[in-house]
Design a protein that fits this description.
- The chain has two domains: 8-63 and 331-443, Aspartate Aminotransferase, domain 1; 68-329, 3-Layer(aba) Sandwich (Aspartate Aminotransferase, domain 2).
- Helix content is 38%, strand content 16%.
- It has 13 helices and 15 strands.
- 45% of the residues are buried.
């Protein structure tokens, strides 16, 4: 009797599906890629099939895959010391804090090191409430700030709805329309959104509002653009009412938008910056909450009520410090700005060729293509929070993208284009050619 043999790839997938749980997914019927290694903008599976990573993992592998400079920095630190308690210090912790202070604008000079984006957000919320003595946090419906209890309650993302009854309290959400579906002109959009915020602050009571939490540039909600001048006016309202402004730069930070931080496109300086993803580019889990000197001074003689066992982990600090050096030595931020402009020109040509491309929203290398059933009505190919049969067309598009050798994030009617910042024009051409073939499937469903 013959025993059926399975490939190494099948074995890896089977062990993972049998013994591990997958986030944001039903557990049966999934078909993950079994990845063996990565190099630059490419990923390789156990069958040596190559995938162009067009979303930088989850918009975090900004420097690209397999950079051994990070490996060497991590090994060197581990050969010295791998862990110290947060009450002790290491050279690499101070060097990283000093480097971040140099990168951040204004008086954002104090770093509290966390474990990931969600823990950066959680500690920003906690600190804002403690510092101001207020309790309400204002956030946008079309946003995602993390999957922990407070960060998810702060988000407007529908993934929180299944646990809606367990939400953390005192988060107030507001709707922020975006230009593609706004029918009354860009000037009126800015006026209406600011007037709406002024009313909300009045209704909730400014003396109750600790902070307004916004993404530097919108990410997984669809790269939704702020009205021009919006963040500057929000910043002014915060100053007027003593409200802190927290910018979530977990996804849009560290060169992704062609500047160090997304908010730098809007000529503002916030009170706090939540960071993660591009800080170590996923080579190790790590995050940071950057705090202004003004806020930090409160705790010179008062206990700072924040703490994590792995805060300022020396190995993660070493990975982060080397990552920041790579951004500069490889001129990745400049390349992100240049390749972003090239991407916009090329997608514009795609838009003319494909009946299903409704809109393209992009800042640097953080963008997404939105597919629609009609360019006239702008009905999305899949609605907000689409499930099941509503995702039929987009699932076909996503499967075609994967079949053709691309890994990227497809959500609802959005195809994300956010490759590593080391991407070249030739690689962008390669990626858009794959996306174009997949979008041809959606064209057949245009009304």
């Amino acid at each position: 009797m013959q025993t059926q043999t399975i490939s190494e790839s099948q074995e890896v997938i089977q062990d993972n599906t049998d013994y591990t749980l997958f986030s944001w997914s039903k557990q049966k019927g999934i078909n993950p890629i079994a990845l063996k290694y990565g190099e630059g903008v490419y990923l390789y599976d156990y069958d040596d099939k190559r995938y162009l990573d067009f979303s930088s993992g989850l918009m975090n592998v900004n420097i690209g895959h397999g950079d051994q400079r990070i490996t060497n920095a991590v090994v060197k630190q581990m050969q010295q010391i791998s862990y110290v308690t947060p009450g002790c210090v290491t050279r690499v912790r101070g060097d990283l804090g000093k480097k971040l202070a140099a990168i951040c604008p204004g008086n954002l000079n104090k770093a509290f090191f966390t474990l990931c984006g969600a823990t950066s957000i959680e500690n920003a919320i906690k600190l804002a409430r403690h510092y101001t003595g207020r309790h309400k946090i204002l956030t946008r419906y079309q946003s995602y700030h993390g999957s922990s209890s407070g960060a998810m309650a702060a988000s407007g993302d529908p993934r929180k709805l299944s646990a809606d009854a367990q939400q953390a309290p005192n988060f107030v959400h507001f709707d922020l329309p975006y230009l593609y579906r706004w029918e009354h002109g860009e000037d009126n959009l800015l006026k209406e959104t600011i007037a709406s915020m002024e009313r909300m602050i009045a209704y909730e009571g400014p003396a109750n509002i600790a902070a307004i939490l916004l993404e530097g540039e919108s990410g997984s909600s669809g790269c939704l653009k702020y009205p021009k001048g919006y963040l500057a006016k929000i910043s002014a309202l915060c100053k007027q009412h003593g409200i802190l402004l927290i910018m979530d730069e977990v996804m849009s930070g560290f060169g992704r938008t062609g500047k160090w931080f997304g908010f730098e496109h809007h000529d503002i300086i916030p009170d706090m910056i939540a960071m993660a993803k591009g800080l170590t580019c996923g080579y190790l889990p790590f995050g940071c909450l950057m705090v202004s000197d003004t806020i930090a001074a409160r705790y010179d003689d008062t206990v700072l009520p924040l703490g994590l066992t792995y805060s300022a982990h020396p190995v993660a600090c070493a990975a982060a410090l080397e990552t920041l050096n790579i951004y500069e030595t490889d001129h990745l931020i400049e390349n992100a700005a240049e390749m972003g402009r090239y991407m916009e020109c090329e997608v514009k040509l795609l838009k003319d060729r494909h009946a299903s491309i409704g809109d393209f929203r992009n800042t640097g290398l953080l963008g997404c293509i939105e597919l629609v059933k009609s360019k006239i009505t702008k009905e999305p190919m899949a609605p907000f929070n689409a499930t099941g049969v509503q995702m039929e067309v987009m699932n076909k598009v996503a499967e075609k993208i994967k079949e053709l050798g691309m890994y990227t994030f497809v959500r609802w009617s959005y195809i994300f284009v956010a490759p590593p910042l080391c991407v070249t024009k030739a690689q962008i051409d390669e990626g858009l050619a794959i996306i174009s073939k997949a979008i041809s499937i959606a064209d057949d469903y245009v009304k």
